[in-house]
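Researcher: Quick test of sequence recovery. Tokens follow.
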């Protein structure tokens, strides 16, 4: 079921500072910032060849990463995203296996224009897992 690592997401308190650090200090190739109001984040993608790093800054009052940044004020690893061939089949398999799918259980369109789901971190050893339709 599990496919490639699509990205690792890092929550950051200051996207401009994080962008400058990745671009100027690390010499990385970055996307333009993309506001995703329905996900409560602004995102910049860092292309690292074999995968992507997603830099996430809170957007709006009810950002899902606000609590994470309150606990980790300098930022940190927020989630990992794996690709799956069939996100609805993956969801049904996971639910039947006892894993908790966050939200209403229906995929939302993610930052790459593809359906995504998030799995409860307590079911996967403390790491929030995103699944993206390949
Ligand atoms: Co993500």
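Model:
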């Amino acid at each position: 079921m599990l496919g490639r690592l699509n990205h690792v997401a890092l929550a950051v308190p200051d996207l401009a500072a994080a962008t400058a650090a990745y671009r100027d200090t690390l010499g990385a190739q970055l996307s333009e910032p993309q506001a995703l109001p329905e996900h409560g984040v602004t995102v910049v993608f860092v292309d690292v060849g074999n995968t992507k790093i997603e830099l996430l800054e809170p957007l709006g009052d009810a950002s899902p990463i606000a609590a994470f940044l309150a606990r980790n004020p300098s930022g940190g690893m927020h989630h990992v995203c794996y690709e799956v061939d069939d996100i609805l089949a993956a969801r049904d398999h996971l639910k039947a296996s006892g894993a908790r799918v966050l939200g209403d259980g229906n995929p939302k369109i993610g930052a790459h224009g593809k359906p995504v789901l998030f799995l409860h971190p307590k079911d996967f050893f403390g790491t929030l897992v995103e699944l993206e339709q390949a």
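The first strand starts at residue 2 and ends at 11.
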